[in-house]
Amino acid sequence: YAMDYELRKKLDAIPGLYKLGKTLLQGKMATLMQMLNIDAMKVGPDQFPDVYKMGCDCAKILGIGIPNMYIINDSTTNAYTYALDDVEPIVVIHSGMYERMTPGELRSVIGHECGHIHNQHGIYQSIHDTLVMSGTAAGGIVAGLSVSAMKLLTAGVQTALNAWSRAAEVTADRAGMICSENLEDNYSLNAKLMYGAAFGEHEINYDAIREQLKLQDGNIGRYMEIFASHPSGARRIAADMEFSECEMLYQWRPELKKPGITMRSK
User: Fold this and answer.
1) N or C terminus of the chain with fewer C-beta within 10 Å?
2) 3-state SS assignment for residue 42
């Protein structure tokens, strides 16, 4: 996504920021791998082979190495990635995500995470997470003062990192589409993340979601997104639908192109 690339270049221009992020992530990666080996299930050819195959397929399509994949006991519908240029990437999938997504949707999740690896998002994501969590270790009033102080001191950088993070999520969603077997799996994945992926059959009305996005953009609520690390669910679905008409997608996956589709240039 062009905005992801442009904002990353601006972040690169901040003296010492990339180096700081790399240092933070290097210290975290080795420890994280050991903790996951203790607390989570490592995915491989003989352990959750269906998930492992999805990871292999997505990595092959995007031209990256096969990531280390883990499923961890957590009922929330979430997945995340830690990746550094010179350290083996890690993809963590919560059990809630594994349970509540169809195989096609789960493949899109893994493709999304591989997209973060492919686009080297890990460094700035580490900085973003560190700034957001700053000051929360202390207790009581001290914690409140510390958090407030850190927010004031880092407000400009956090706003810039949030803007980049939202753009990076669009890039990763596009990677999920490139890796998918059915483009609609990406729409339903993001829809499920909006309503909690409640168990049972739910037919999603995407026209209604477009109307919901208009409501979001039609009042002051649209400015709340400035403080978010991810775009709203409705906006992500609209962006996915737009990308489904983009020539770039079918340069990657010509076999997904349907007859009569309206094509957009990059």
Assistant:
1) C
2) strand
